[in-house]
Every structure is written in structure tokens, then in C-alpha cells.
Design a protein that fits this description.
- With about 230 residues, the chain is α/β, with parallel strands linked by helices.
- The chain folds into two domains: about 120 residues, 2-Layer Sandwich (Ribulose 1,5 Bisphosphate Carboxylase/Oxygenase); about 80 residues, Rossmann fold (3-Layer(aba) Sandwich), CATH 3.40.50.
- The chain has a four-stranded antiparallel beta sheet, with helices on one face.
- Helix 2 packs across helix 8.
- It comes from Planifilum fulgidum.
- Pfam families: Ribosomal_L1.
- One of its GO terms (molecular function) is rRNA binding.
Length: about 230
Amino acid sequence: MAKHGKRYLEAAKKVDREKMYEPREALELVKSIAPAKFDETVEVAFRLGIDTKRADQQVRGAVVLPHGTGKTKRVLVFAKGEKAKEAEQAGADFVGDDDLINKVSQGWLDFDVVVSTPDMMGQVGKLGRILGPKGLMPNPKTGTVTFDVAKAVQEIKAGKVEYRADKAGIVHVPIGKVSFDTDKLTENLKTLAEALIKAKPAAAKGTYMRSVTVSSTMGPGVRVNPAAFASR
């Protein structure tokens, strides 16, 4: 069992383990008990009622949080010609084709998100063993394989986050920083919850949103009432 520090234990005492907090109340508590001296990231974990072993019950996608995450992401775009120019004008940090693919193949990973035009995917696919394990492989489901590279870059810079259920059916996503206003964190949380509800697989049975927990990077989890998001 992991050992926690004194600050974490003091923060944990302020959380009622038996209570299901409303979203705003939970986030206010997370902000007030964040134990670290740096501006911690506020994260949420949704436990979904899905069978991840079944192909028709995968939950994956992306959503633009209205207030961003507090972190500016470095965007790499694989594109040629006019599409490369569009990506540069939209604010992409790195843009290229063969030379950039070669650089990544040699182990360079100084970026947070990868976007590619569809015509480049044949070559980008060769980077699967490098980008795949890092969760960086472009995917049409998350809007990162597209000819509209300008829109993709702008959305990522504006606060677009990807979500994907792990093997246990849990989705972990950052929704901001402890320094964010509670209203902004609450709106980000609700926007993400709405996206997950829309992404509910038709084959999923029973209660879909089984539990919701918010926490700061170094702080204890605070349970949120799933009914607050009108999930079924």
C-alpha cells in the first residue's frame, strides 16, 4: 500500500468518504485542500459501465474544454504543401513531412499532440511503434487525422483534450488547474461529462456513468454525484 505524506493525510481528513458531492462543491473542496506548493492540475476519473473487451463498447474521442486545461500543448503536424502552410499559420509548433518523420523515428518526442493529413498516414503509420505506446498516434476518432489542419491545431491550442477508456473502463482527463476559478472548472467538467454521455456505446447495458472522482495532482480524490450529469 502506498504511503502518503503528511500534507496529503491532512487534506484527506477534510474529505467525507461517504458523501457524494455536487460538482461545484467537489471542485471547491479539491481547490481548498490541494497540498502541493505548485499549481496542481485538476483531474477527473469517470468509471463507465462498459465492457472494454468488446469492440462495440470502446469509448474514445476528443472535446474542446471551454476554458482549456491551463497547459499550452506543443503540436506537431505531418503535412505537405498548402496544408503545411495552413498548419504553420494556425500556430503549429512543428510542421513537416519526410524529414520530420525521420526525426521522430530516431526517438525525438518533444511534442504533446500529433496531427496528420490523411495522405501522410501511409508514412506516419511506420511510426506506430514509437507514437502508439505514448498515445500520440493520429486518429480520425479524435480529429487528428484531417485535411482541415488549421481547425485541428486551433482547437488543440484552445483546450481540446482526448479521452479514452482504459481496460478497466475508466477515463482519466485533466480539466484545468487549482488556480482556475471554480466556475471554469465546473464548466469544463460538465462539458467533458456531456461528451462522454454522447459517446455512450449503444451496446452498453445498465448504469453507464458509475462513478466520478475529482482530485488535484497530489491530493486525495473527492467523489462526485454521477446523477448531476443526468447520465443513465
